[in-house]
Each structure stands twice: as C-alpha cells, then as structure tokens.
C-alpha cells in the first residue's frame, strides 16, 4: 500500500518517514512540502541518508488523493482544516495528526485554537483514533483524526477508572510535562536553548487546546464529566511526555485492586504496559517506541488515586499512533511496523 506524507519536513513528518521506511506493509511513496520543492529530505535531515531518498514535492491534493492509498497529514493546526477536505473523497484514506478534526463542537475549536474550524459535517465523519478505545470505528474510517499527544497519555491512564465510574468526575487534575519536540521544529522564545536548557516551565495555564479534547472523550465515556484542571510543563529534553493524574476514588480501594483492573483492561493491548505496583515509569523507558506505560497508586490517607502515564510524544503521541490506526484501516496487524523497542539509556 502506498503511503504519502504531507508536512514531511517537520518533526511529525520525519518520524512518519522513519517508521514507514521500516514498515512491511506500507511503502513510503511520496513526501510533500509547502516550502521546498525537489530537494531531498536529507538536506535538512542527514540522519535519513539511505533511509529515504525521496525528494520533497509540491502539494497537489488532486494528484495525491488518487495516487496514494493513505495520506498522512503532519501540518500545523489551521492548515489541516483546509487540506483534509481536499484530500478526502478520492482513492486515498486520510490520517490527520493535527488538532483540526478532533473537536466535534466547532465552537470549542474556535475558542481554544482561535482559528476557523473545518466544516462541521466533515469533522463529524472523522473518526477519533484513540486506538485502544475505538478500534471498530477506526477499522472503517476514511478520515482519521489522530489524538493529541497529551490527551493520548492522559486518556489511556484515566480510561479504566472513568469507564467503571470509580473516580469523582468533578475533581480530576492532570499535571503533564513534555519534551521540546512536542512544539514542532519552528523556533519560539519558549523553546530557545537558553530559555529551555536547565529550566522547567509551565505554559498555557488553564488555556491549553487539549483541555476540550480530553473533556470530550471523558464525556463520551462518562456523562458525569465536569471541567478538568490540566496543566502543561516544558522539560529540557527532546522527547517524552509524563502525565500525572490525581482523582479521588468514589469508594475505598487498594492499589492492588486498581492495579488488577488496569491489567485486566489492557491485557489484549500490545502497546499499553501496566507497570507492577510501585514501579513508576520514566519517559526514557518508552523513548522511540509506541508504548504507553502506566502505573497506579492509591494514597490511603486521602483515598486519592495517582495515575502516571508516559509516552514518546512523537511516536504514541503522533506518528506511531497514526500508523497504528492506519494498520487497522487497512486490515494489517495492529503492530505492523511498530515493533521497535524503546532506546535505553
Ligand atoms: N510534535 C509533536 O509531538 C506532535 C505534533 N502533533 C501535530 O502534528 C502536526 C505536525 O507537527 P510537527 O511536525 O511537530 O510540526 P513542525 O512545525 O515540526 O512541522 C510542521 C510542518 O508543516 C508544514 N507546513 C507549515 N505550514 C504549512 C502550510 N501552510 N501548508 C502545508 N504545510 C505546511 C511545514 O513543512 P513545509 O514548510 O516543508 O511545508 C512543517 O515542516 C501539528 O498539527 C501538530 O500539532 C500532534 C501530536 C504530537
Ligand atoms: C511542548 C509543546 O509545545 N507541545 C504542544 C503540543 C501541540 C500539539 O501537538 O498540537 P495539537 O495536538 O493541538 O495539534 C503544545 O503544548 O501546544
């Protein structure tokens, strides 16, 4: 199956190139850029020498949608909303990594992204691809909306207790940290070396665009969902997300009971690893892989549950989950092309 990547010169794009170049069922067919034409991707990214010799090509949606079987969109939010509808409706299936097709309420998109949304009916038809929790719909999707990096980590961590009504849905606090590649390749003062190195910052306090995405999925799972508290911090590392979630349990439970629920819930999910009691994951333990590692612990003094989940923002948080979804859309093994282990140390 022929796979194409638009936005191939960005961090999500090159991660797609890396994973697709080693995929047994997809062939990397073409890579597209809006600013570069006929230059090899190795000019900007020498590490891809002899991995990908394709030139970056001008984006022509009419051609792409008939010559590719699947097209991955790794362009900024506000750009995908224009390109995705032009790419849909032809031969190719579309997998969008941006935030543009995730929020079913277009007013939420306007409020949190401060941009004009795509057509509401088009968004309604896009399948939200939090793979572990939406497999049947992912399999038949023609347009797939890949979840955000923070929502992936937070939601995989919360799902078992939210779906089983075990926590107070009015008191969820998610405290998340991300490596700098989460911000993409573009420069900004926040990610400038001198600002970020030896530093640790909170950003987008109470106004992060992933708040409505997390609340949307929580509401689909549990109607008692109330607004969450969600904060994001920038770590001076390249890759990785840790989401630490705090929520009061609705009845007294032990760590062992909660742990048993998580093990049972995720026993058939190849990319979710539930850690043994008291073994809390670090971001390095999933780096370069499509794993989400989760650990749970009950604070017996407060009866509050602490959930720790880690992912690589560029893999399970972006390109890896996008390929996991595409595998299902083409009836391939879900793990195809994604069996790489974490890099450690
Ligand atoms: N980085 C991460 O960890 C994650 C990113 N995402 C999402 O994935 C998408 C890509 O992110 P990321 O790769 O990090 O971002 P980058 O900024 O690194 O790359 C984005 C790419 O989009 C292309 N682009 C920019 N403007 C346009 C335009 N007007 N038309 C077409 N292409 C354009 C650029 O390539 P060129 O100039 O060559 O066209 C650029 O290389 C974003 O929507 C992001 O929110 C989602 C989850 C995690
Ligand atoms: C570290 C960092 O800056 N991360 C980005 C993640 C953005 C992203 O992936 O954007 P969408 O999912 O909304 O498209 C942020 O916090 O905004």
From TrEMBL:
Entry's Gene Ontology BP terms: L-arginine biosynthetic process
GO molecular function terms attached to this record: N-acetyl-gamma-glutamyl-phosphate reductase activity; NAD binding; NADP+ binding
Keywords tagged on the record: Amino-acid biosynthesis, Arginine biosynthesis, Cytoplasm, NADP, Oxidoreductase
SMART domains: Semialdhyde_dh (SM00859)
Pathways per UniProt: Amino-acid biosynthesis; L-arginine biosynthesis; N(2)-acetyl-L-ornithine from L-glutamate: step 3/4
GO CC annotations, alphabetized: cytoplasm
Function: Catalyzes the NADPH-dependent reduction of N-acetyl-5-glutamyl phosphate to yield N-acetyl-L-glutamate 5-semialdehyde.
Name of this chain's protein: N-acetyl-gamma-glutamyl-phosphate reductase
Organism: Domibacillus aminovorans
């Amino acid at each position: 199956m022929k796979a194409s990547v638009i936005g191939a010169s960005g961090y999500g794009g090159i991660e797609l190139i890396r994973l697709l170049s080693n995929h047994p069922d997809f062939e990397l067919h073409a890579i597209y850029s809006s600013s570069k034409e006929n230059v090899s991707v190795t000019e900007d990214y020498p590490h891809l020498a002899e991995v990908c010799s394709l030139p970056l090509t001008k984006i022509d949606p009419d051609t792409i949608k008939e010559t590719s079987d699947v097209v991955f969109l790794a362009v900024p939010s506000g750009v995908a909303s224009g390109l995705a509808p032009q790419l849909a409706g032809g031969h190719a299936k579309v997998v969008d990594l941006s935030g543009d097709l995730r929020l079913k309420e277009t007013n939420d998109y306007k409020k949190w992204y401060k941009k004009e949304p795509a057509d509401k009916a088009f968004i309604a038809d896009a399948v939200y691809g939090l793979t572990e929790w939406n497999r049947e719909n992912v399999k038949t999707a023609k347009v797939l909306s890949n979840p955000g990096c923070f929502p992936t980590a937070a939601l995989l961590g919360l799902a078992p207790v939210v779906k089983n009504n075990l926590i107070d849905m009015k008191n969820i606090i998610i405290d998340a940290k991300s490596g700098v590649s989460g911000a993409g390749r573009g420069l900004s003062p926040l990610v400038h070396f001198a600002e970020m190195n030896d530093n640790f910052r909170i950003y987008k306090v109470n106004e992060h665009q992933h708040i409505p995405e997390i609340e949307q999925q929580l509401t689909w799972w549990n109607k008692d969902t109330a607004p969450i508290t969600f904060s994001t911090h920038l770590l001076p590392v390249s890759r990785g997300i840790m989401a630490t979630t705090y929520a009061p349990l609705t009845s007294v439970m032990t760590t062992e009971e909660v742990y048993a629920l998580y093990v049972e819930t995720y026993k058939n999910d190849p990319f979710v690893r539930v850690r043994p009691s008291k073994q809390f994951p670090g971001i390095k333990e999933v780096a370069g892989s499509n794993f989400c590692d989760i650990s749970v612990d009950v604070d017996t003094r407060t009866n509050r549950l602490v959930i720790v989940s880690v992912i690589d923002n560029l893999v399970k948080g972006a390109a890896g989950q996008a390929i996991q979804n595409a595998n299902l859309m083409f009836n391939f093994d879900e793990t195809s092309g994604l069996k790489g282990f974490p890099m450690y140390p």
